[in-house]
Amino acid sequence: MPDTPHPTHLDRLEAESIHIMREAAAECRRPAMLYSVGKDSSVMLHLARKAFHPSPPPFPLVHIDTTWKFPEMYAFRDRTAAETGMELIVHVNRDGLAREIGPFTHGPALHTDVMKTQALRQALDLHGFDAAFGGARRDEEASRAKERVFSFRTAAHGWDPRNQRPELWRVYNTRVNEGESIRVFPLSNWTELDVWQYIQLEDIPVAPLYFAARRPVVERGGALIVRADDRMPLRDGEEPTMRMVRFRTLGCYPLTGAVESEADTLPAIVRETLLARTSERRGRAIDRGEAGAMERKKREGYF
Amino acid sequence: MARGPGPEGQDLLRFITCGGVDDGKSTLIGRLLFDSRQIFEDQLAAVDADSKTAGSRDGARDLALLVDGLQAEREQGITIDVAYRFFSTGGRRFIVADTPGHEQYTRNMATGASTADLAVILVDARKGVLTQTRRHSFIAALLGVRRMVLAVNKMDLAGWDETVFKTAAAAYRDFAGGLGVDDVTCIPVSALTGANVFEAGAETPWYRGPTLIDALETADVSTDIARRPFRMPVQWVNRPGPDFRGYSGAIATGVLRPGDAVVACPSGRRTTVARIVTFDGDLPAAVAGQSVTVVLADEIDIARGDILADARNPPDSTDQFAGHLLWMHDEPLLPERQYLLKIGAARATAQVTDLRYKINVNTMEHIASRTLELNEVACCNFALDRPIAFDPYAEARETGGFILIDRFTNATVGAGTIDFGLRRAANLARHEMALDKALRARQKSQRPCVLWFTGLSGSGKSATANLVEGKLAALGRHSYLLDGDNVRHGLNRDLGFKDVDRVENIRRVAEVSRLFVDAGLIVLASFISPFRDERRMARELVEDGEFIEIFVDAPLEVCERRDPKGLYRKARAGEIENFTGIDSDYEPPENAEIVLKTAEHSAEALADRVIAHLKDGGYL
Fold first, then answer.
1. Of the N and C termini of chain B, which has fewer Cβ atoms inside 10 Å?
2. How far apart are CA A207 and CA A211, in angstroms?
3. Is the Cβ pair A176, B410 closer than 8 Å?
């Protein structure tokens, strides 16, 4: 017979992610999709719509809001939820908010722990989610390269990297006892380049911060920080200057460094990714500092 | 959705690397990533910094630190769990699963091997083929890896000696042939210097074969999965409203087109494909590897776990099969225990009915065994509580590989491959089957019977029966305990303790036991039941072999001394009449199947004897 289709590399990645999402949706009692507003979340959401079409994805989006995201991220998040018609649950750690925890007053580590890790744990417990999709990829970081697609968490949300469930073929063990949960990573086998090529090919909307534009930048500790609002105190001699920058990864604005770039279209971003000489997470203040920082955070319940 | 032509399945190679401790495996992968320019500057800077504190090369750049991502791994200098790495060259994309060499972490090696097309097996040139080399190759071959590359590493430390290389290569080819692997490439390399990894080594002029990257770029990874009969495990029934009903899944093998005749397995219901639905529109054809939603011409009952298959060439369905099992948990496999089996999207309760032999993964010897310990491999027969559709693993990994899950802890405890069905479950055209005792018993994976505990009051009947029932529950068996406490207060509330009432009491208990045996249960009846005739009557109500009389034997003085309910005291005081042993006779059994002397042995030991009797008799 003629016309047997030949799936490409991206076709296969797409099909694998869809299989993973369907498996979680079919077997888990109450799944949710962690939606961080970044490019990986955009791809994950796009894949979810494909996986369950013509039904809507059978789970809500959950955004853990540290209150320190870029204004463009909030706008993009709300527009995405409205356009897809998906339920959006926004969770803020009220306790952290009351204590006015922030990256400048308390440092990046405590801020991330309270407003992100603890907030995530609160949200999962509050809504009783037994499975949460995350957009993490194995190419991002060494401890993520070790993680399963269906990654088991104890009732205290802990990850035990030395004792992970064996995961053969694509037969996933989704079973948990009361209170335990699974983090599901449909993009495990995607690389940063795959993500951008797929975004280009499928014309997936992403936050405008990924595109180069002139933005008010303060250079601090070697990182280019875009001063998104005046909660960021300026140090002596610091003066924001307008520079042509974009982001490879998005997070809390004070903790996420921009890169100088002229890439203001998807083809230009793909080209730049192909030629990149530094890793995508280099701009993340929170991932550095000590060896194994990511592994430690993951053990504590971070994504 | 045009994405540019990709050569058919040849643009991606998934491979594993395995090697023993200190064979230089992580360094080799670091070298592959480094030489293919996949390492970013900041990552390299981090490695250089780490090399000064955690490296094994006196502060010089230790490429192994690129891959050992867990703190424990860096501290111990070993690989504990599989890491997935991605790199590409002009020729191909690669997903490499870097797997641990320690026997202790064999299960993590199996995780990596289950999806690999090829295995790179490392040996240290100075040591040659070792026990662990054989174990890695055996596990990889067991999981279906049919192409091996032997990288004889550390040639720099072996003086680049051709004889050293040839000896290792010959020994390995010999061994791999025995595993049924004949696609073997042997390469002398040095991960440290990079010789024969990306560039031919000037130090090995005697070697004219491919470099490692050549071997990886040119390995034939074409599979026949697109040419095999169509199979799609149904993951999810897609039903957004009354007007649409589709079956979502990933195609495991074959090609599907609208109009194709398909059959749902194991139910055997047939229909044709109406549409292949995706978010991007209906497809004229879909092939293995694609995730689709299939709409059928007729509304037939299909659920998650069914396999949609080519109607002309359906898979076998069975509830009993032979296969290989790799045990992956600290707690050993117990043949009598029930586990949850997952294959594709299907689940069943599974039990090992016959552990035929264990395979010594180091010597390939077959060994008889009752249990299977962590990292051991055995050839077993399995029985399921319901039929599943499958293909032999050698033909299709996707529809022939399964995992076993502990029903209480939910841990993944085993991984298996189906070799062949032991008998067809006669399900392709299923008949309405009347439920009978045999079927109910099979559902529970046990032979029902009555354990009839008889003996004086205070002899230890209930204590022993309770322990036995606890052990049965722990083995996943279905039982019910009948004793004075739960019978006298309800069913036999109207009966006293005169002889005639005692007879009627036992008659009713015997009838209830018979019904429960018919339901497939193991019944534990704990009654003084002093008269031989009544016990014989109870025995005759059930079939031969279903009645096990257990004489709980303790001298009257002992029972009276124990007097757990104070009844002997009351009887001696004349407050109770017709008390067995005092003013009413007890007729000891003459041919009890089991005699338990409770004055001489612990209740625990006696309960174990009862369980052993049940096992030996094939009840469990």
1. N
2. 8
3. yes
Q: Give the DSSP H or E segment for B367.
A: strand B366-367
CA of residue B601 relative to chain centroid, distance: 37
Is A196 within 8 Å of A202 (Cβ atoms)? no
At A286 the pLDDT is 54
Question: Taking CB atoms and an 8 Å limit, are A276 and B40 in contact across chains?
Answer: yes
Q: Which residue has the tokens 């990257």?
A: B213
Residue B55: its pLDDT value, please? Answer: 63
* Whole-number Å distance between alpha carbons of B387 and B319: 4
Q: Which residues of A touch B257 (CB under 8 A)?
A: 1
Say what percent of chain A tops pLDDT 70.
94
Output the average pLDDT for chain B.
87
d(CA B47, CA B66): 6
The two three-digit tokens of residue A98, written as one number: 């009351």
At residue B139, φ and ψ (nearest 5 deg) are -65, -45
Instruction: Say if the Cβ atoms of A6 and B6 lie within 8 Å.
Output: yes
Query: Which residues from B are below 8 Å from A14, CB to CB?
Result: 291
Q: Which residues contact A27 (CB under 8 A, 6 or more apart)?
A: A172, A174, A175
pLDDT of residue B19: 83
The share of chain B scoring above pLDDT 70, in percent, equals 93
Enumerate the β-bridge partners of residue B188. Answer: B152
pLDDT above 90: percentage of residues in chain B = 51
A299 lies within 8 A of chain B by CB: no
Q: Bridge-partner residues for A217, per DSSP?
A: A226, A241
Contact B203, B215 (CB under 8 A): no
Residue of A nearest to B98 (CA): A146
Q: B84 CB near a chain A CB, below 8 Å?
A: yes
Evaluate whether B143 touches B39 at the Cβ level (below 8 Å).
no
Within its chain, how far is the Cα of B59 from the centroid? 45
Encoded amino acid at B396, one letter: A
In this prediction the pTM is: 0.75
Q: What is the pLDDT of residue B158?
A: 92
Ranges of chain A with pLDDT below 70: 1-2, 281-293, 301-303
Torsion sign across C-alpha atoms A194, A200, A201, A207: positive
Count the neighbouring beta carbons within 10 Å of the beta carbon of residue B515. Answer: 11
Tokens describing residue B264: 């749902």
Inform me whether the C-beta atom of residue B325 falls under 8 Å from chain A C-beta atoms.
no
- Which residues in chain B land under pLDDT 70? 1-10, 38, 54-60, 67-78, 423-435
What interface predicted TM-score (ipTM) does this complex get?
A: 0.90
Contacts of B345 in chain A (CB under 8 A): 23, 26
Comparing alpha-carbon positions, the chain A residue that sits nearest to B342 is A171
